[in-house]
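Structural prep section.
Before we set up the soaks we want a predicted structure of the protein with L-homoserine in place, mainly to decide which crystallisation condition to try first. Input record follows.
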Amino acid sequence: MVNIALLGLGTVGSGVVKVLQQNKDNINNKIGTEISLKKVLVKNRDKKRDINLKDSMMTTNPDEILNDDEIDLIVELIGGEQPAYDYIKRAIQSKKSVVTANKLVIARYGPEIHRLADKNRVEISYEGSVAGGLPIIRPLKESLAANRIKEIYGILNGTTNYILTKMTQNQEEFSDVLTQAQKLGYAERDPSSDINGLDAAYKISILASIAFESFIDVESIFVEGIQDIEQVDIELAGELGYVIKLLAIAKEDGDKLDVRVHPAFISKDHPLALVNDIYNAVYLQGDAVGDVMSYGQGAGQMPTASAVVADIIQVARCICEHRPGATLIDSGARADLKKIKDVKNSFYLRIRVNDKPGVMAKVTRVLGDHQVSLASVLQKHRRSAVVPLVLITHPVREEFLMRSISELEKIEDVIEINSVIRVQEEKNPGQNKSTKTEKGE
Ligand code: HSE
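Run finished without errors. Recording the tokens verbatim:
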């Protein structure tokens, strides 16, 4: 028998109880022993809940759980930094294994928590912390362990993916779609950390720390949200053969790591372009396996509970086999991140200019002076004195592009630089020829 306790009985906590109850026999068979839910920490015992749980199992006192020697495994589902971080550490120090879905605690304190778990010979597992039900942390640590991971591209935030999808499908503006998403429960009342990209930054820092075996400080990641994306940019992207997605990127670049989150044009042919609505996906390349993609629901009660219960099963097996010991992501190394000014990308620029002879020449001269070369140019006829000019550049260091934009702003006939969006020019699957793909060779 493995005794477990839950810290937190909100949406995900209730989902975990439901999965443990509805799949009880199946789960016990998979472990080879019984999982017994002994206690649950709640804020309010009297709150109405849609689960069947004995009143005597609930407590509002964390000490009743953290000081209970009979509990083998703590499942932390409170979220946020405190008190979750303290409870996780106290549990580990009391020789209890921990399962958590807390991206913030793992992204900020992952190495410290892993070291503590290793020292105390217990497990720490957190599949639910990144992209809910989509399997990616265990695949990275286990199924793909033979590989050197080259690059990861993720759509790791369901709220922003839903908003961008609806802007694309319904030709609506960002603020209108956000209001609808909140009404439908697809966006939080305060969606700021989704919209501004921070949620995805926590998630890519966890994935990159595992993939590249060095701690990625989330504060050092370049992050840009989707709040400035306009309907016209989505339309123009479509005309040019792209869709706009909020991408979380982590890849090797020389002796540094390039880790960032921002909206990006991606080719309509890329598998990530087909990831719509609240769905998440991670697309990665390993040196042996080639291209791999994982797709699924990145949030929500039951998908996240699916990941958390899978961790419970895995950790319970370790406890039964008396072989606890954390899987390290902490090699002691801290990643050297490439600064965004040094990253090379293609860019989409939308500029409003006076429709006069010679304006285009002035614009292209400034760009050329800063080593910005153009891949395509589109001028929309709006029958007015001021017209939108749309440019796609060849790959250029961001520093040069930004300098050229400062200069463009000084040209009298350039009324406004409306949009600057990075274009993800990565090759599509099948074009990565770094590995032989024929089976049986
Ligand atoms: N709010 C997140 C999302 C889920 O929209 O994907 C929790 O990280």
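Observations: Residues 432-441 have pLDDT under 50 and may be disordered.
Flagged for discussion at group meeting.
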